[in-house]
Amino acid sequence: MTNELVSGRFMLLPLDSRKGGQSEVRKAVDTHSPDGAAAAVKLLTPRQDDEVIELFLERETGALKELRHPNIVEMLDSGWDQGLGRYFVALEWIDGSLKDEMARGRAMSWSAFFEQIGGPLSSALAYAHGREIEHRDIKPGNVLLTADGTVKLADFGIAKIRSKVAAGAPAQETVADFRSNLYSPPEQTDSLAYVRDVFGFGVLAIQVMSAGKAHDYADLAPVLDGLDLAPEIHRVLADCIDFTPGNRPPNAAVLEQRLRDADQVCRARWARRHNFLWLKLTRAAAETVLEIPRGTDIDWQRAQAAVMDDIGGPVHADYGFNQQTGEVDRDTIRLAGRSLFLRLKADDRDADCSAIVQVQRKSEDWLARWRAKAVPVAGLLTFDFRNPGEDAAYDGLQALLDELDGHDEARAAAKRQEQQASLGDLFDGWRRLLDAREELAAGGREPLYYTQVTGEGRTRVFHLTRTAADPNGLLGEEWSVADYAQGRPLERGQITGASEDQVIMTLPRSARRIPERGVLLPYLGPTQTALARQRDALTAVAEEQGANRLLRQVIEDPASVQIGTPAQISDWFRGDLDDSKREVVRHALGSQDLLLIEGPPGTGKTTVIAEIVEQTLRRSPKARILIVSQTHIAIDNALKRIADSGRSDVVRLGLPDDPRVAGDVQHLLLDRQIKRWSRQVRTKAEAHLERLAANNGLEARHLKAALTLEGLAAVAGDIAHVQQRLLDLTEQPTSDRTSSARELAEDIVTARARLDGLLEQRGELFTLVQRQLEGDLTLKEDMAAADYRTVVGALLGGNPVAAGMLDVLRLQGEWLQRIETDQALVGTFLRTRNVVGGTALGFLAHPAVRDLDFDLCIFDEASKATATEALVPLARARQWIMVGDTRQLPPMDEDLLRNPKLMEDYQLIPELVATTLFQYLINASRPPVRHLLREQYRMTPAIGNLISTCFYQGQLRSPGTHTLPGYDGLYKPVCWIDTSRLGQRREAPRTESDPSALNRTEAQLIARHLQTLDRAVERRVIKPGHTGKLEVLVIAPYSRQVEELRRRLAPLQLHHLATEVLSVDAVQGRECDLALFSVTRSNERSDFGFLGEPYWRRINVALSRARYGLVIVGDTAFCQSKPGALSQVLDYIRTHPVDCEITDANL
């Protein structure tokens, strides 16, 4: 054999192949893998009936594409290889199989079989059956074993997808002729789904445990009876091999549950004989048991006997619980016997011994309530005050801890389900939520139905069916005209007159078609477009029509996300990635559909995103990746990082003149790239014309002008076409509508945008041709296509050589014109880009994007997006990575939450309105679906440690050592300037006209502090490491305080500080050298407002911006008058005097 390359990717190795009935399997090297991973290439055997081979290919690949499970083999590629002339399927290479193990002739015990083979195999089958896929060929050769013993179910070659059969697929497509002897049931029909696989599993279990003693159907029952099995296990396997299909477990999910239940019974029986919980009594506990005074001599034997008597019957256990933090205390175990409630801790001297440190006598009612939430353990353990031996004590304690861990996880899962249930049907709730947002955006303005329209030209009078509620309030507003309330807008104009029964509307142009009967709708502007995109995405996901139909299932049951195997990466683009980031990247490149990344401030989210993108494209060079964010700055940072690495296939979606698009990524904008492409093509075309002119004695500028005129002719033709298209759309009768009203509205918007672009292009070309002609001809810009071509003929008609070039010029002109405006060509260009970025809703503004699907969507700042906003990009991708921080500010529908009537009308609850999709998925997920980036490098350790302790449960690390030289000579990195001793510390009285808070004293103190900092830099006390100004953010939680601070700072001459004053909401996502936070609130009522305990995220945002120095100005006595984030921050500062300080304010 010689090395051959399959599909340009898999290099077949010159080794013997594995041959089966329908295929041969060759070992290959995956040349797209950075570490040269091995692959198994299954080459389907050529036959005359290629339809059967195609069917095998469809079944194998179709099944594997549906399945993502750690115990199912992963498919890498499939298709037709032209060089070999054969169909192929490429899978991960696995050297061993259960067939190889059985060939050694060693029988397995039930416990070994179930742990190593049976459990994983039944789980994989249950997963497949849950997706209506049967394997149909369970046998040892299809159960592969990795080097570490992991089971991988392979060869779905005769898989049958029940949903396809139910939909009416032809019966001959069941491929029922291909069977595997003993492992296939004796019946020849498939009237019952899934029981064929159940039979195969039962036979496989018997053969593995008996070392293959059964040779025919008749041997199965006797061989099973001869195995040393518990009656519970025997009963399940006997049902599996029952020759009557209806007597078998109906599917693998039922089989798996029955096996696990039976196995648990057996393990409990074994555990009681082998697992001992070694107990000791402390003096305090013994005194309570014996009910004797402290210090009295203790009869230890009697005390131990009393405890043993109490826990001799039913016993329940649970971990401890910390009432203050609300967290599980895994260092404490609680036991409830008949009347005693015991608390256990690890013994100081013997690690495997549990010391009873507290005993309480509780009423039967109290114990009954507690037992209902605990786990029974009497059948799991034998309790003993004598040392049972090292192994028995260790096994007993570990068995108890494992049971408590499982119980704790089950309780957490139940809590997640309860939270999900409280949200109700999410998709129905989200639809109501969008309707409520639309009504809120309309400002309470209801549609106005009319029965007659009069008038001509731009002014029309609409006669209403019922009285308008507030006619004068309509004046000056923009409204749209439609056939019906949910219909697409046909025209839009301004209300210039109104009475109770009629409305006068002035249109921007003479309307071609206004329905005689219809409805006037309040114009919602961009809000309407955003809501429409969210509704479309919601519908696509709900109907499983997105790029990955499993998205709905993931949302409804986040726990169903299959955990993928982390990718092996040996070569990193960024060598300084810490362990938590590398772990995230490995899982991102694995096979799981969803990855959630929690990225606190300064943890390098952009770095992780860039690494994921580059590693993905290294492995899959043709992958198309969508990167979106809620803010322009975040998407621009990510795209710049990727483009700076040398990638030229990055495109930014957005408006060319949008000031929110960063200057250093403007060149990545799609429109600018298209224009550059167009200019390059035009330059090459003009250079070619110059050569033709020189060779044929022609004037070069006339040839160039002719080329431009042909472009104008093409533009004029397109303008006429688009104008007719707009006419057709506006005159299209209701009965002709074949898609949603929103889609048709998008068609009109798209056509008008295309017309505007063509008119702009015509102007540019007309200016160009005027310059080229140098006054030789007089033209009008709005000529028709035929008129432009007549000018071309007049310009070149006298020269036979030039006349012969007219067709070529015409083609070139049309091509140059189409490059910039033809959406098909723009879409073609876009498909050549691997990385596409834009805002979460704005990326769909470009028509060419609407037909694209993506292999991967990376959603940065996903915690800032509402649930329905998040669906818009996710619906377009097959795999999803969401990055965010649930401890920063989420999006707020405050206007909606404060409107009880709307909330009631649309049956909304606050949790549904306020919970983002990212928060919802985080709550319902665990690692490795959910990851936390733990190392932050923005904040100096003093600030980083404060943020970690107060807001992230101490999970963040700050390994950086960066400081601002000289700053410590003035202040410690965290400094609280305390106003509590000042007589004027209180906030100003609030007014009805402006209820926002204001604190002039704090504003004055901050102004003085900034002047001190500026002088320190001037005198070289503080020595910035760069030549520019220090970046300073002054942050306040209230708009009046922001205005007061800006007023105070405006006259200051701060030569060395670049200072911005912003609200807390506005600084999210920003960073700076120094941050000053004005608490603002201080009053006798202990009214914290937006700084109270429920708003701790606002404090986190405000305090986590600075690299070097954080200054808080506020009243410490007030801030500690109630529990909350500010009180916790003050506690931290007081207990960390090395890095933090509290100084008295001095005016």
TrEMBL record:
Family recorded in the similarity comment: Belongs to the DNA2/NAM7 helicase family.
Molecular function in Gene Ontology: 5'-3' DNA helicase activity; ATP binding; hydrolase activity; protein kinase activity
Domain Protein kinase: 11-277
UniProt keyword terms in alphabetical order: ATP-binding, Helicase, Hydrolase, Nucleotide-binding
PROSITE patterns per record: PROTEIN_KINASE_DOM, PROTEIN_KINASE_ST
Segments traversing the membrane: none
Family annotation (SMART domains): S_TKc
Annotated protein name in UniProt: Protein kinase domain-containing protein
